[in-house]
Specification:
Helices cover 16% and strands 20% of the residues. It is built from two helices and four strands; from the N terminus they run βαβαββ. β1 (9-15), α1 and β2 (38-44) form a beta-alpha-beta unit. The chain has a four-stranded parallel β-sheet with strand order 3-2-1-4, with helices on one face. The longest helix has 11 residues, at 51-61. The chain is an alpha/beta fold and 123 residues long. The chain starts with 8 loop residues before the first strand and ends in a 24-residue tail after the last strand. It has helices at residues 22-30, 51-61, and strands spanning 9-15, 38-44, 66-70, 95-99.
Length: 123
């Protein structure tokens, strides 16, 4: 499904050195069956392994869904919430968060779900 403005759901995924898990996680996001446009915003928090390369590969293959963001220095170590650094397109904002190390493979979604991820940092 072509992701057009506005999308209905934004999935936010933070990753750091998750080369062993990222493909499975992204494949799970892409396997979702929906009747609405969605986007997957993946923020690589300055990984030192091949996480960024894998993310680039998926973003090139799925530019209408996978939106990558690459940090030059690790934000988590500076107590900055990476989810605050990415612009979402869903209107109204309907977001869920996932870790690059938490593969998702559920299929068959037919309606948007609104969820709020929790941040390890106080606001």
């Amino acid at each position: 499904m072509k992701n057009s403005y506005p999308c209905k759901v934004s999935v936010l995924c933070a990753t750091f050195n998750h080369e062993d898990y990222l493909r499975t996680t992204l494949d799970g996001f892409l396997a979702q069956k929906t009747n609405f446009p969605y986007e997957v915003l993946v923020c690589d928090d300055a990984s030192t392994d091949s996480t960024a390369d894998i993310l680039r590969e998926y973003a090139e293959k799925h530019p209408d869904i996978i939106r990558p963001f690459y940090q030059k220095e690790n934000l988590y170590s500076r107590r900055i919430n990476v989810y605050d650094t990415v612009p979402i397109r869903s209107t109204p904002p309907a977001c869920t968060t996932a870790s690059g190390a938490s593969p998702t493979s559920r299929t068959g979604c037919s309606s948007p779900r609104t969820a709020t991820g929790t941040s390890p940092f106080p606001r």
